[in-house]
Amino acid sequence: NAGVTQTPKFQVLKTGQSMTLQCAQDMNHNSMYWYRQDPGMGLRLIYYSASEGTTDKGEVPNGYNVSRLNKREFSLRLESAAPSQTSVYFCASSGGRGQGAKGYTFGSGTRLTVV
Amino acid sequence: DAKTTQPNSMESNEEEPVHLPCNHSTISGTDYIHWYRQLPSQGPEYVIHGLTSNVNNRMASLAIAEDRKSSTLILHRATLRDAAVYYCILRPMNRDDKIIFGKGTRLHILP
After folding, report:
1. Which of A45, A90, A103 sits opposite B98 (nearest CB)?
2. Could you tell me whether strands A87-94 and A105-106 are parallel, antiparallel, or unpaired per DSSP bridges?
3. Is the Cβ pair B97, A97 closer than 8 Å?
4. Which of A53, A61, A96, A107 has the greatest count of CB atoms below 10 A from its CB?
């Protein structure tokens, strides 16, 4: 099983450019998440989707939009990239509500640099 | 969301046991205690979880205090590959499944 797949793995953007980070999971999980991790820091939740068709803001949603395209896919869009969005972005999935006994599965991350 | 408190960093010698503490005094009765670790340049990976009883798996053991206000992740024989950031989080059983990560404990293993 591939688990959680993120593309691209690396990206350099110029300030003001837009891009979409892709995430797909093959575990039939209900919930999906986007986190960012700045150098030397912990993970901060950007957006999450508790189930197909729903999305909610996390701790740091400003400057981002998300789309839960279907049960498998959850994309993160930067409409106008800023240097402050330079970070490593992680996608994760889980079974969802009522699944407290089950763990999260994380992707390997997208390293984004905005110059 | 319930909060956890962990030491910023810890050191241990290779091949010795390591006890990583976590305080979660505001834990609710339906919160699971989960531990994740993040190796350098990788995404976090699940280590272990528990609700009330101590738990063992191939990676580690989890000791949960009787009042559930604290827990300890135990690595029985640390290796250099165990050097990572370890996160203790509370996962609600019956609420929206939104987990907030703290800064975790950076574990250094000395050869």
Report:
1. A45
2. antiparallel
3. yes
4. A107
